[in-house]
Amino acid sequence: MTILAALTGDIYVRDPAIAYNQDLGKYSIFSTREGVKIFTADELSGPWIRTGSVMPNCSKIELEGNCNCWAPDVAYLDGQWVMYYAVSSVGSQNSAVGVATSPSLQEGTWTEHGMIFNSSEDAELNWNAIDANIIEVNGNLIMSFGSYWGGMFQMPMSDIYTLNTLRLPGNHVAGGNDRPAEGGFVYKPQSSDWYYLFFSDGSTGNVDPTEMPEPLEEYKVLVGRAENATGPFVDKLGRALTKDLRYPTGSVVLASHDNVFAPGGQSLFLDPISGRDVMVYHYVPVDNITSDAVLGINYIDFTHGWPEVVHA
């Protein structure tokens, strides 16, 4: 399974999001860390070049980790580019989801608007305000978010800056019971009537070759599908993604193989140049297992009702 990407220099990414600016004829990828890192390329296959950061002077959200923002999500809404991101630290529920906007995706054009909502270490709070993803359905905005703890949730938004509910965390769509599942991304291909919830499951982070996780306990991309963007999402066996079972729910889209270890942090978009569905993600190269994660890009085929990873 060949990866469609060419990297230039020491380019490392986590939780990549991808977009294409038709006016500039350029792809942009956004990544966790350094105020959300920006990479650009003229072609999907690269070479990808680091061009700066969305928030080079850190986020205005006053929480630990505000210079090291996580998990960007990018969409074109209301005539502008909108980015959601998380401010948090590893293992903490002291987290927030923020938003920034840009007319062009380029460095120096982003305006940060600050926090939309947050979570805390409150003992009764069983959710975490990270890993936001937005989808627009018939003019309505739906935000997915969440990681570990009680799982992944969804909430309606009245506009790109404002939740349309006071009943946090909203609708439970996947994970829970401290399952290591996160990064929910709802996607509807133009060729399908189904909505797909992609998410990452398993152990991630820097790899210690002396303490490797057991097979299939490392990061991997799983999926469920539903007739509606709000679920209920089920896997190929018909199991609801919210169920806490001995054999975790979700059908495998992409797992470790060949030189790819622990792929995850995925997002998808319809490439306007090829007209094909594309998934971007991060992974650790097996032949450089102690390195940071690098970029993976593959086409996704939905012809048979469930996503299949392909190259060409």
Automatic annotation (TrEMBL):
It comes from the Eukaryota. Pathway: Glycan metabolism; L-arabinan degradation. The record marks D131 as: Important for catalytic activity, responsible for pKa modulation of the active site Glu and correct orientation of both the proton donor and substrate. It is an enzyme of class 3 (hydrolase). It catalyses: Endohydrolysis of (1->5)-alpha-arabinofuranosidic linkages in (1->5)-arabinans. One of its GO terms (biological process) is arabinan catabolic process. The active site is at D15, E182. Gene3D superfamilies: Glycosyl hydrolase domain, family 43 (2.115.10.20). Pfam families: Glyco_hydro_43. Keywords: Glycosidase, Hydrolase. One of its GO terms (molecular function) is arabinan endo-1,5-alpha-L-arabinosidase activity. Its EC number is 3.2.1.99. Belongs to the glycosyl hydrolase 43 family. This is Arabinan endo-1,5-alpha-L-arabinosidase. The lineage of its organism: Eukaryota, Fungi, Dikarya, Basidiomycota, Agaricomycotina.
